[in-house]
Amino acid sequence: MRFTKSIPNMFTLGNLYCGFLSIGYAAGGHYNNAAILILIGMMLDSMDGRLARMLKANTELGKELDSLADIVTFGVAPSFLVYYTYFYQFGLMGIMIAGLFPLFGAYRLARFNISSSKSSLHYFVGVPITAAGGILALLTLFGGGLPHFITTVVFTAMCFLMVSTIRIPSLKEIPLPKYGTIVTIFLGCLLYVIYKGTYGSFPYLIYFATPLYIIYVAYRFIKGKNMKDID
What we know:
Low-confidence stretches: none
Shape: globular
Mean pLDDT: 76
CATH architecture: Up-down Bundle
Strand content: under 5%
Largest sheet: 2 strands, antiparallel
Distance between the termini: 30 Å
CATH class: Mainly Alpha
Structural class: mainly alpha
CATH topology: Four Helix Bundle (Hemerythrin (Met), subunit A)
Oligomer: single chain
């Protein structure tokens, strides 16, 4: 029973570890791998909370751990990735600008943690840090031909949208489109890496994480469909 309650935290720690690995890959010049690790972190982050509810293992420890993991994987890691791929050319000013992203993200997470749990079921106030960090990762992964000006605009927009009061639908009650989109992203990343011929240096975590996530999505879809049939 105690092990069951720790399963969601294991996924959260996996998310945090992806963030650490992403920073390391970015520092080593493996930018595609760094971006994909952030996306793997998104996958794990989307699972831990739902697993906690499924297993009835919601705890304050899990909530705090999730926030700490998110600020690393979707705040610090994307900012390093953007710095190493673009902002580095501005020297000290570049790293100072890149450092703003986790600051805005930390404020966004703190505000979310003290917000009403009822409102969070239907919408988010401001863009979630997970989505913002994922967008920067995708921009790095697939936006090699885009002007650097686009990177600057998207980076700045994500910073301010995270702390804005814009209401973003959470879609927690519509699981299939959300899961389907994330699965599509990860399969697309895998195909991209194979096409580029860089699979030799690719993080092997994807070979375990992607099948596990697809199995999880299928289980959630079948379970939801069976519940509708019972009703």
